[in-house]
C-alpha cells in the first residue's frame, strides 16, 4: 500500500479544495496596483509617473495610455542594459540575482532577462498551485511516491558580475525546494552537465535506477531524450524502463504537433498536462483534465494585456505598432488570436513576450498558445498563424500515415513567383507532390486569406522531407541543444538560405 502516496494525495486534495474560487479580473487589478506601487520609486516608475497613474480615476486606462509597448530590444537598450551593468532600482527595486538567457527562436545572440527574487518566488508559488491542481486529475496514490524527470537546461549557471545567468529552466531547477530534491531527477550532478548530448547519455545510463512517474520539459527535446533511453537499453518503448510513468507536463510550445510522435514512444497512454513557463515568468498551466487549455496565473506577479492579432497592428519584425489597442481580461473574446503583453515583478513593462494566444474560456481565463508574432506568415497576404500551420501538419500526418513532429517554412521567391516551401521532419519518405497537394488543399479550406493569396502572388506549395534529427542539429549549430530552445516555424528568405545550406552541408537533403 502506498502509505506516503496516500498522505501526499490527501494533502493535495484538501489543499486544492480549500483554495478559494478565483476572480481573474479582480486579481489582475490587484496585481497591477501592486506592481505600480512597488516600482513607483524606480527610475522607470519615476519616468512614467507610476504614482500619478495610481492616483488617477482609472489606473488601468492611464497605464495603457502612458506606458509604451516594449519588445526586448527597446526594453534592453533603454533600461535593462543598465541593470546588467549592475545599477540598482532601474525597472524594479534593487538588483536581480539572476538573468534568464534566451535566444528564443530567432537569432543567435542571447537575450538577458532579469529574474528577481520576487519572480523566483512567483515561479515556485505557481508550481505549488499546479501541484495542488493535480487533485482534479484523479491520479492514484502511488503516483505521488514516484520520481519526476525535469529535462531543462543546465543548472550550472554562469557567474557574471554580481549575478548568475542561465536559461529559466536551469534557474528554476537550481531553486527547487529542499523537500523536492528526493523526487527530482536527473539529480543535481547530471543536471549540471552543460553539453546536451553528454547529459542525455548520462540520463540513459542511469535510467533503470530510477522509478519515474512524471516527465517535464519541452516536447522536442523530451522526445529525443526518450529515444536515447529506449535505444541505449534496446527496448521498444519507455514504459519498459519506467513502467510507472503516468504524467507528462509539457511546456513552452503547443503539444499537439508532437502528439503522434510522442505517443509512439509510450507503451500505454499517460496524462498530458500543458504548462507555460517562459523566460519572463510562469504564465499559465492546465488545471482540469477535461481540457488541454491552460489557466492564466492571474494572482502571482504578472499583469496581462491582449492585443488583437491583426496585420495592421503587427510590424514586419513582429513588434507592435504603438497605437495598437490592448484589452484586459474583461474585454477579450473566445476564438480570437491575441498578442500577449505582460508586466511583471522582474521589471518588464508592457512587454511583448512574442507569443500569440487564444481564449477557450474567458470566465476561467483559460488559453492555448497559437503561435509567435514573428512566425506569422503574411509575405504574400496568406496570413497564416502557427496554429493554422500546426493544423495543416496534423492533417498531413493523418493523410500520409506518418509522424511529423517538426517543420519549418518560408515564402520563398522562385523564378515564377512565391511558393510556400516546407521542410518537414520525418524519417519516412512520402511522395512530396502528394504532400504539397494535401497541404495546399487543407490551407485553402481552412484559411480564406490563404485561398485568396493562391489566386494572386502565391503560386503554390513545395515540400521537402528531411530526417527529424536535422532540426535538433540545426538548433545545436545555431544556438544550443535542449532547455528552452525551440525551432523557428517560419523563416525569412536569408535565414532560410542558411537553413538549406546547412541541410546540404550535413547531407540531410
UniProtKB/TrEMBL annotation:
Single GO molecular function: acid-amino acid ligase activity
Annotated InterPro entries: GH3 (IPR004993), GH3_C (IPR055378), GH3_M (IPR055377)
Residue span, GH3 C-terminal domain: 390-494
GH3 middle domain residues: 297-363
GO cellular component, as recorded: cytoplasm
Protein's recorded name: GH3 auxin-responsive promoter
Organism: Croceivirga radicis
Amino acid at each position: 500500500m502506498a502509505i506516503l502516496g496516500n498522505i501526499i494525495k490527501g494533502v493535495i486534495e484538501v489543499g486544492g479544495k480549500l483554495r478559494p474560487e478565483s476572480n481573474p479580473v479582480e486579481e489582475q487589478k490587484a496585481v497591477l496596483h501592486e506592481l505600480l506601487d512597488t516600482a513607483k520609486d524606480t527610475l522607470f516608475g519615476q519616468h512614467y509617473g507610476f504614482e500619478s497613474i495610481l492616483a488617477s480615476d482609472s489606473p488601468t486606462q492611464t497605464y495603457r495610455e502612458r506606458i509604451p509597448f516594449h519588445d526586448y530590444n527597446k526594453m534592453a537598450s533603454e533600461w535593462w542594459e543598465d541593470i546588467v551593468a549592475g545599477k540598482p532600482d532601474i525597472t524594479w527595486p534593487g538588483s536581480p540575482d539572476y538573468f534568464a538567457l534566451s535566444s528564443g527562436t530567432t537569432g543567435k545572440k542571447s537575450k538577458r532577462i532579469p529574474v528577481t527574487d520576487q519572480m523566483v518566488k512567483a515561479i515556485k508559488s505557481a508550481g505549488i498551485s499546479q501541484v495542488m491542481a493535480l487533485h482534479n486529475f484523479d491520479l492514484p496514490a502511488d503516483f505521488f511516491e514516484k520520481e519526476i524527470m525535469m529535462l531543462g537546461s543546465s543548472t550550472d549557471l554562469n557567474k557574471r558580475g554580481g549575478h548568475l545567468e542561465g536559461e529559466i529552466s536551469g534557474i528554476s531547477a537550481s531553486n527547487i525546494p529542499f523537500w523536492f530534491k528526493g523526487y527530482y531527477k536527473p539529480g543535481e550532478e547530471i543536471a549540471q552537465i552543460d553539453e546536451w548530448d553528454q547529459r542525455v547519455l548520462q540520463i540513459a545510463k542511469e535510467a533503470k535506477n530510477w522509478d519515474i512517474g512524471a516527465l517535464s520539459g519541452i516536447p522536442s527535446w523530451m522526445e529525443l531524450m526518450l529515444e536515447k533511453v529506449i535505444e541505449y537499453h534496446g527496448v521498444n518503448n519507455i514504459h519498459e524502463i519506467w513502467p510507472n510513468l503516468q504524467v507528462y507536463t509539457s511546456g513552452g510550445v503547443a503539444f499537439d504537433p508532437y502528439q503522434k510522435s510522442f505517443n509512439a514512444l509510450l507503451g500505454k497512454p499517460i496524462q498530458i498536462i500543458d504548462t507555460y513557463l517562459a523566460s519572463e515568468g510562469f504564465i499559465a498551466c492546465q488545471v482540469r483534465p477535461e481540457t488541454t487549455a491552460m489557466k492564466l496565473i492571474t494572482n502571482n506577479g504578472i499583469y496581462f494585456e491582449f492585443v488583437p492579432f491583426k496585420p495592421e497592428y503587427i510590424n514586419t519584425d513582429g513588434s507592435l505598432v504603438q497605437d495598437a489597442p490592448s484589452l484586459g481580461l474583461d474585454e477579450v473574446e473566445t476564438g480570437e488570436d491575441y498578442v500577449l503583453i505582460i508586466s511583471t515583478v522582474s521589471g518588464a513593462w508592457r512587454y511583448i513576450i512574442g507569443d500569440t494566444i487564444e481564449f477557450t474560456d474567458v470566465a476561467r481565463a483559460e488559453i492555448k498558445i497559437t503561435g509567435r508574432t514573428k512566425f506569422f506568415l503574411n509575405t504574400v497576404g496568406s496570413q497564416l498563424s502557427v496554429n493554422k500551420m500546426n493544423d495543416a501538419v496534423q492533417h498531413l500526418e493523418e493523410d500520409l500515415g506518418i509522424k511529423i513532429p517538426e517543420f519549418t517554412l518560408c515564402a520563398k521567391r522562385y523564378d515564377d513567383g512565391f511558393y510556400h516551401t516546407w521542410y518537414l521532419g520525418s524519417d519516412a519518405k512520402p511522395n512530396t507532390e502528394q504532400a504539397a497537394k494535401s497541404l495546399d488543399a487543407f490551407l485553402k479550406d481552412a484559411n480564406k486569406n490563404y485561398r485568396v493569396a493562391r489566386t494572386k502572388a502565391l503560386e503554390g506549395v513545395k515540400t521537402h522531407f528531411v530526417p527529424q534529427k536535422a532540426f535538433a542539429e540545426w538548433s545545436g549549430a545555431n544556438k544550443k541543444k535542449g532547455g528552452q530552445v525551440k525551432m523557428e516555424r517560419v523563416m525569412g528568405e536569408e535565414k532560410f538560405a542558411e537553413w538549406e545550406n546547412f541541410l546540404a552541408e550535413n547531407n540531410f537533403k
